[in-house]
Structure formats: structure tokens, C-alpha cells
Design brief:
By secondary structure, the chain is α+β, with helices and mostly antiparallel strands. The chain has one domain (12-67): Alpha-Beta Plaits. The chain is built from two helices and four strands; from the N terminus they run βαββαβ.
Amino acid sequence: MGNAAEKKLPRIEINARLCKGCSICVDFCPTNVLEMRGTTAAVKDLAACTRCQLCDLRCPDFAIQVFD
């Protein structure tokens, strides 16, 4: 039995080959899960992800996906 307070973390996949570094996903994330590392988006704080999928929905290049 797991602790009821434990939260299953989502999985966020960022395809670096598709990411053009526009930072739209970073800008739209309401909980600051993402950051730019050079010219590619990256996960900074996975535990803060609320699974809103705004990053996924706003990415013009389909470079990011959020999985439950």
C-alpha cells in the first residue's frame, strides 16, 4: 500500500529534434514546470505539473507531450 499523499508523476516527453526553441510551452505553463536550456525546452520541476497540457496544446511543432 502506498501513502495516500504520494502523487503519481506524469511523464513529459520533449522531442529535441522537433523543438525550435520558441518557448511558448514555457510561457504558457502555469506552474513553471518547464524551462529553456539553450534552444530546447526542458523539464525543470516535474512534481509541479498539474497535467493541464497547455504546453502540449500550445506547441506549434508538436514537440512536447504530457502523459498521465
